[in-house]
Amino acid sequence: MHCHYCDRPAAFAAESDGVTVGLCETHFQERLEELADADGLDALKEHVDVDRTE
Fold it and tell me: Which of 9, 23, 36, 38 is deepest in the core (most CB within 10 A)?
């Protein structure tokens, strides 16, 4: 799978309603920053079970 925004290999994939979208590490990081700036991170935390740190 390739990144939704560029031709790099996807490092992460998100699925919703049967549609899967891949993101490379760069675009994944950019999207996380946008969500954090837009207060969307709290809404994302409600949908994602994050129970570990690396």
Answer: 23
